[in-house]
Design a protein that fits this description.
With about 250 residues, the protein is mainly alpha-helical. The protein has 9 helices and 2 strands, in the order H-H-H-H-H-H-E-E-H-H-H. Helix 1 packs across helix 2, helix 2 packs across helix 4 and helix 8 packs antiparallel against helix 9. InterPro entries: DUF4184.
Length: about 250
């Protein structure tokens, strides 16, 4: 499923549980797909991160890495985020949650991912459930039933996330620490996403493969956008450090 962020919708019912930090749930729900967004993704077989055994191993490792990165970038992302997002979301504050709760949340999140994919990708479950295994004709061609469920559930997951996000009551977030960085952030992120797509598409083995083209475009755009966010966050942190040193001098 190229709509990896849609997997976060599966853990929304657990939002607000004190023993399951939501950021860790979200990180776990996306962790099995992390290799798809890395430069060496082609060298990692799918079963390495998409099996029951991967949940407490690779998926846990990737999920913890995502959560740790998020803990660092969240305050900066909030400072540079577009106003509709910034007024509806507050980054975590206070002391770090208990590590046991974080680990449990990542495991639960990755388990929802594995279950979702088991019903929407080729595998044992989709081979024994008749409507999912059957091939159906459509204007888009001939596809298995699970393929349609994959695309529909991915689109629905994204729609649910947007709906829940924009239903949050807006609040005044206070002044931005770095208005200039915030103004430049969208251009940096978009440029990084477009550059990543261009680099990946031009190196495809078969540019006429529409399915591969869609997958490559979606995954590379997310990878590029994420890299752009990291660049913005590093620049933001360096500017904060320079300002702090200036005041201390």
């Amino acid at each position: 499923m190229p709509f990896t962020p849609a997997h976060v919708a599966a853990v929304l019912p657990l939002r607000g549980r004190p023993y399951f930090p939501f950021a860790a749930l979200a990180a776990g729900s996306m962790s099995p797909d992390l290799p798809y967004f890395l430069p060496f993704s082609g060298s990692i077989p799918r079963h390495v991160t998409h099996s029951v055994w991967s949940i407490p191993t690779w998926d846990l490792l990737f999920g913890m890495a995502l959560w740790l990165v998020w803990r660092w970038v969240a305050p900066i992302v909030h400072d540079v985020a577009p106003r509709p997002v910034r007024t509806r979301w507050t980054p975590p504050t206070g002391q770090d949650p208990a590590w046991l709760g974080v680990v449990a949340a990542v495991v639960v999140g990755s388990a929802t991912h594995i279950l979702w994919d088991a019903l929407t990708h080729a595998g044992y479950l989709t081979s024994v459930i008749g409507p999912l295994a059957a091939i159906h004709d459509s204007p888009l061609g001939r596809h298995h039933g699970y393929s349609y469920l994959q695309y529909a559930s991915g689109a629905l997951g994204l729609a649910v996330l947007l709906w829940v996000g924009f239903r949050q009551p807006p609040r005044s977030p206070g002044p931005r620490r770095q208005p200039g960085t915030a103004a430049a952030a969208p251009a940096i992120v978009i440029a990084a996403a477009l550059l990543a797509v261009a680099l990946r598409v031009t190196t495809m083995h078969d540019p006429t493969d529409r399915r591969a083209m869609v997958f490559t475009t979606v995954t590379s755009s997310i990878s590029g956008a994420a890299l752009g966010v990291i660049v913005v966050c590093v620049a933001h942190a360096l500017i904060d450090l320079r300002v702090a040193r200036h005041h201390a001098a």
